[in-house]
Amino acid sequence: MLSRLSRTASRRSTSRIANVSRRWFVQPSTADRASVVEIPSSYQDETHLTPRADMLGFKLEIPRREGSLAEKIRPIYLDMQATTPVDPRVLDAMLPYLTDQYGNPHSRTHAYGWEAEQAVEDARKYLADLIGADPKDIVFTSGATESNNMAIKGVARFHKEKKRHIITTQTEHKCVLDSCRKLGEEGFDITYLSVGNNGVISLDELEAAIRPDTSLVSIMTVNNETGVIQPIKEIGALLRKHRGIYFHSDAAQAVGKIPVDVNEMNIDLMSISGHKLYGPKGIGAIYVRRRPRVRLEPILSGGGQERGLRSGTLPAALVVGLGEAARIAKKEMKVSIFHIIRVWDRDHARIQRLSDRLITNINSQVEHVVRNGDVNGYPGCVNLSFSYVEGESLLMALKDIALSSGSACTSASLEPSYVLRALGAAEDMAHSSLRFGIGRFTTEAEVDFVVNHIIRTVQRLRDMSPLWEMVQEGIDINAIDWSQH
Ligand SMILES: Cc1ncc(COP(=O)(O)O)c(C=O)c1O
């Protein structure tokens, strides 16, 4: 049957079918068209078409264009909060859904749809398992930006007749703050909670901010600039006492990195991003509790997929990638030692060790370094400010290391980071901050290279700084009245 189908199809559209039915026949390049590639025998049976020379291609390697980064030495990647590399196991799981199994998961009338749907449902289960949720409560989106927009605007607009107050914090990601700003323009009242010097909110301040017309509290789990972890379980318990207030958490930097359980933490809505946990970009999810049911107005209108909350065809391959990333993250957290199942997070333990190594070695050799945020934050995000060096010069001098000063999403602007300012950091210290993002694939050798490079660079820049010279001479810089000079 399949062979008859293939042969019929071959008369119509040989190249299209060959392109999708073979794993490595996806993107023919000019060079590939010029040469004939050997076809593996497993693909030469009658169920597959024999590809012609013009259908060849698909190499799993970085394209090397003249002058591109790939031609030069690539910097060491320490920017894991901006994005994480796709775990090879994730890519393996995704590939069949980009090639052979290309069905629309919403097609109900044939096997192509059913197999894609099955893969999507498996992924939903893996993600739900990771956060202690029911799979039915998971809605796939394009990423945490969409999930945050959906949670904040969706809940606020649904309840707008009776409730028009929202509480969030000053250190949220831009997409949360901007969603709130938009609601402010629509007539909602927003309270932005301040944070202490350690970046953590005060539960008393939160409780005092609650009003009878509060519909939503949105507080992130792990901060993307400082790694600060908010007391989510305590916030959840506090909000449970106030009926009718939904609790949303942007957990883009937390899921897959630290244990998160929506029931233990009393979370009603939670945002997740694929590319922060070694999955692909362009996919994310939102947890929306069904019992008791969270009511929200969908942002998109359309086919009513995903419980009517997020219309649009699901990108099965990306969903599978997110599911596999979640499955791996969960597996890494539970390791059997001597037949005793113990919760022992292998990723976390490695990252903690590398993080300690980075901080200890920098601190032991460079003076006047301040760690921004709570020391008990997520260890894979280390934010350090270097006094008496100019932030821009520091970043320029560290071209061999891919890292961020402040959030990657805001680093295009020269404004000092609003997150660090909210923690009380002086403007110059916020400017001279660097965020070191350590992840699953970071090595000890990379950390050592970075430490040595930082030590040398900070010393060199300070040697050129008149301020540093004054400090060395024992002058108290803070006591100087600069307006007199
Ligand atoms: C805390 C936080 N929330 C939301 C986002 C946005 O995530 P996405 O890229 O999936 O839209 C990011 C990404 O930087 C983030 O760090």
Automatic annotation (TrEMBL):
<keyword id="KW-0663">Pyridoxal phosphate</keyword>
<keyword id="KW-0479">Metal-binding</keyword>
<dbReference type="GO" id="GO:0034227">
    <property type="term" value="P:tRNA thio-modification"/>
</dbReference>
<dbReference type="Pfam" id="PF00266">
    <property type="entry name" value="Aminotran_5"/>
</dbReference>
<comment type="function">
    <text>Catalyzes the removal of elemental sulfur from cysteine to produce alanine. It supplies the inorganic sulfur for iron-sulfur (Fe-S) clusters. Plays a role in both tRNA-processing and mitochondrial metabolism. Involved in the 2-thio-modification of both 5-carboxymethylaminomethyl-2-thiouridine in mitochondrial tRNAs and 5-methoxycarbonylmethyl-2-thiouridine (mcm5s2U) in cytoplasmic tRNAs.</text>
</comment>
<dbReference type="GO" id="GO:0005634">
    <property type="term" value="C:nucleus"/>
</dbReference>
<protein>
    <recommendedName>
        <fullName>cysteine desulfurase</fullName>
        <ecNumber>2.8.1.7</ecNumber>
    </recommendedName>
</protein>
<keyword id="KW-0408">Iron</keyword>
<keyword id="KW-0808">Transferase</keyword>
<keyword id="KW-0411">Iron-sulfur</keyword>
<dbReference type="GO" id="GO:1990221">
    <property type="term" value="C:L-cysteine desulfurase complex"/>
</dbReference>
<dbReference type="InterPro" id="IPR015421">
    <property type="entry name" value="PyrdxlP-dep_Trfase_major"/>
</dbReference>
<feature type="domain" description="Aminotransferase class V">
    <location>
        <begin position="76"/>
        <end position="448"/>
    </location>
</feature>
<dbReference type="GO" id="GO:0030170">
    <property type="term" value="F:pyridoxal phosphate binding"/>
</dbReference>
<dbReference type="GO" id="GO:0051536">
    <property type="term" value="F:iron-sulfur cluster binding"/>
</dbReference>
<dbReference type="InterPro" id="IPR000192">
    <property type="entry name" value="Aminotrans_V_dom"/>
</dbReference>
<dbReference type="GO" id="GO:0044571">
    <property type="term" value="P:[2Fe-2S] cluster assembly"/>
</dbReference>
<comment type="similarity">
    <text>Belongs to the class-V pyridoxal-phosphate-dependent aminotransferase family. NifS/IscS subfamily.</text>
</comment>
<dbReference type="InterPro" id="IPR015422">
    <property type="entry name" value="PyrdxlP-dep_Trfase_small"/>
</dbReference>
<dbReference type="InterPro" id="IPR020578">
    <property type="entry name" value="Aminotrans_V_PyrdxlP_BS"/>
</dbReference>
<dbReference type="InterPro" id="IPR010240">
    <property type="entry name" value="Cys_deSase_IscS"/>
</dbReference>
<dbReference type="GO" id="GO:0002098">
    <property type="term" value="P:tRNA wobble uridine modification"/>
</dbReference>
<dbReference type="GO" id="GO:0005739">
    <property type="term" value="C:mitochondrion"/>
</dbReference>
<dbReference type="InterPro" id="IPR015424">
    <property type="entry name" value="PyrdxlP-dep_Trfase"/>
</dbReference>
<dbReference type="GO" id="GO:0046872">
    <property type="term" value="F:metal ion binding"/>
</dbReference>
<dbReference type="GO" id="GO:0031071">
    <property type="term" value="F:cysteine desulfurase activity"/>
</dbReference>
